[in-house]
């Protein structure tokens, strides 16, 4: 993702790319890392996990809706809409459901829901990083304004 941001330095419309695609992908991959680290804390109670996970899920869902609105007016394929907007929102909703479940009950499926949400978010982030890298490489940098021909 950081390589893609570097490649985007000379691209036209880079602000839209950063706000609509690169930053959200970094946020989603960071969310997977943070929740995974959170689950490694041995003294974290179910209540503490529910509060932290619930707050993160709410923030992630709100951010996913913002991203959805940013990219909603652009001509994107169904696969791009799915991986950049819909799947992250569903994953954050899944994290929220797992947070509630970890507080309200002791069901093993809560952990399955949590793991599944994190895996889908990770796979979507990896796919999106690859999608952006191939787009940047194929689109190439913009032409210099004062090039001597």
Protein model, in words:
This protein is mainly α and 149 residues long. It is 78% helix and 0% strand. It contains five helices and no strands. It has helices at 2-7, 14-38, 46-71, 78-104, 108-139. Helix 2 (14-38) packs antiparallel against helix 3 (46-71), helix 3 (46-71) runs antiparallel to helix 4 (78-104) and helix 4 (78-104) packs antiparallel against helix 5. The longest helix has 32 residues, at 108-139. The protein is elongated, with a radius of gyration of 18 Å.
Would you summarize the structure shown here?
The chain is mostly helical. It is built from 5 helices and no strands.
Please supply descriptive tags for the structure shown above.
0% strand; mainly alpha; 149 residues
Q: What's the gyration radius in Å?
A: 18 Å
Give the mean pLDDT.
82
Globally, the shape reads elongated
Share of helix, binned = over 70%
Give the class from helix and strand content and strand pairing. mainly alpha
Largest sheet: none
The H-and-E topology, N to C, reads as HHHHH
Oligomer: single chain
Counted by DSSP, the helix tally is 5
Give the secondary structure arrangement, pairings included.
Blueprint lengths: L1 H6 L6 H25 L7 H26 L6 H27 L3 H32 L10
Helix pairs in contact: 2-3, 2-5, 3-4, 4-5
């Amino acid at each position: 993702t950081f390589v893609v941001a570097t490649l985007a330095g000379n691209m036209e419309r880079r602000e839209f790319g950063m706000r609509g695609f690169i930053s959200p992908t970094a946020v989603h991959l960071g969310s997977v890392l943070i929740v995974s680290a959170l689950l490694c804390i041995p003294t974290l109670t179910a209540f503490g996990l529910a509060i932290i996970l619930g707050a993160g899920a709410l923030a992630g869902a709100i951010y996913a809706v913002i991203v959805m609105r940013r990219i909603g007016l652009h001509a994107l394929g169904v696969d791009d809409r799915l991986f950049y907007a819909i799947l992250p929102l569903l994953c954050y909703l899944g994290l929220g459901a797992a947070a509630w479940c970890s507080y309200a009950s002791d069901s093993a499926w809560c952990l399955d829901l949590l793991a599944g949400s994190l895996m889908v978010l990770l796979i979507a982030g990896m796919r999106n990083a690859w999608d952006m890298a191939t787009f940047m490489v194929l689109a190439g940098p913009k032409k210099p304004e004062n090039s001597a021909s």
